[in-house]
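FAQ: What does the model actually see?

It sees only this:
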Amino acid sequence: MTSRFASIGRLSLRLAPRILLAAAILVKGAEATASFPVVAIVAPPTLDAPARYGMAKLRDALAARGFRLATLPSPTPPDFVIIAGTTADCEAGRLVHERNAPVPAGPEALVIRRLHYHGRPALVLYGSDARGLMYAALDAAEHVASASRASDPFERVREIDEKPFLAERGVSMYTMQRAYFESRLFDERYWQKYFDMLAASRINSFVVIFGYENGGFMAPPYPYFFDVDEFPGVRFIGLTAADQERHRSAFKRMMQLAHERGITVTAAIWDHIYRGGVQTGGIPGAPKGGERLPGLVWGVTGDNLAAYTKAALRRFLQVFPEVDAIQFRMHEESGLKPEEKVGFWHEVFTLIKQAKPDMRIDLRAKDLPDEVIDDALRQGLAARVSTKFWMEQMGLPFHPTHVNPQNQKDRRHGYADLLTYPQRYRVHWQLWSGGTTRLFLWGDPDYVRRFAGAARLYGGESFEINEMLATKMLGEPHTGKPIDSLTPAARYYESEYDRYWHFYQLWGRLTYDPDTPATVWEDEFTKRFGPDAGRHLMTAQHLASRVLPRIVAAAYRYAYFPTTRGWAEMKRQDDLPTFARLEGTDTQQFMSPADAARNLLSGTGSPMRWPQQTGRWFADTADAITRELDQVDLAGASTNKELRSTVTDCRMLAALARYYASRLPAAVAYNVFKESGDLHAFDAALTDESRAIDAWRAMV
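And it is asked to produce this:
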């Protein structure tokens, strides 16, 4: 046997020159013992960073279970072998081919196979590229960690062949409040752990949004990182050269950590000049524009706007070659005036063509003229159009059947009039969840699967969704200390994103492969809460996660369209006379209370969903959530803070559903009274509104 494994080492070295055979004695606990099984890992030495990262995580998982890694050739044959690679001529590629398994093609594809290798149980991990191998290794590591028998590391590893359903699966973050942003920017451990979670979830894109209704911070972002010699009068007031160096270094390190985990970084430049107005973001005392104040950029004017932007953007691309793509906000909310847009963007496009012609750029669709799209394409840029999926909120997981009439003839959101043929550009779908799922836990696998299919419209292959807590500290002064979302006594995590693991898990795994088995998250719920409580908490969270999107679609005033204004978790949506005028946001699927009242009075039927039907849906959903929670034994809630927090969130969402279960019928009855003067309808409106108030009190 000894000579056989010595020959395996020579064979591997011949088939893949200089194969790296990781060698270390890794044991569980402090004591090494020969009783622990030995695992040999065979992988080429020239793996790219994401593959190296994935294999390191697999080694860590083996170490945590007490397995040892040995060098081949070795006088002691291993008990198990792992063979990994990304090329057809490596040992992993040869084994996949020998067994007639489909060799993965295209980016990020992977194959995992269990077999015997020279008489020993073996695992083959093959990726079409570094990301594919990373995902295979992370999948194996997860199953090694959950194996019930310490003697068999491959016990729970699945044989799979997978490739991405959507090529780009993104998460975006805002920089709305300086103190909160910088508390993250300078925390390397924060990014390491955050990107660990995103990589394990198969999120492969991270968008950093500079500027957005934040009182002039990062408007524009360039002086936060550097000054431009040609424009000595443009400065970020209050920053020193040392501050700028610190900012540059931290941003570069953040991008490096992302790239090591197979995550690209898009710099989204949303403000080009600060002129007040909507850019103030509702911050108390926010400057109106034109003031020289600490924390703001000074010196960008209408006269030098295009010239400065070109010079600063060129420098930005030189200083940060790590940036993978740029996203631009194109319209007046970026500070541009209508008469400036066409000329400004022509100058910017010309600069990009000269400086980095192959870089992908996203053109935000709102109020984007065809002339500007044509200019980008005519200059040969890698441009695509980026549009909001459903307002600036999380509606239902399909494209709205019919958007609100006031936006049916413009490009404010949705696909609008962008789906022209012959097709000249791709559309990138942005789910602005930050105005809806701001705080409560969210996770609905059926929603994500449905959304993934909808994102294929017009040849779509990409999306991004706001990170959880995206709008945290919105409207707060930039020097304000970040506020924790849970009290210290209730916290059970190192960083707040840990609380939302299921959100990221679903948005990454199910947009990579909608057929991902439910055991991926069922196992995690079991690990965190136990088999019985885990099952019921998982179902309760899935049901509760349907409440907010249904509110947005069927019971939402259109005035709450903006992310910075709408908040379905918190807003009661005004007094009944105002709420009763709600239009909804899919005006073809869901009937408004006013139309329902008119139809009732006239005896007119409709195939649309009536508010009363939607109210019953809310009531039934609240009952279903409550039934699941009632099955959870809360005896351990005092020690399992995550269990208590999960139950609380689900109960709050059930109460919110009961609020709308009563408020929608109240709105219909109130409209009947307004139309007819029927006092019985008025009494019914008061009764239902009282029930809604009781439900609201149950939340607060």
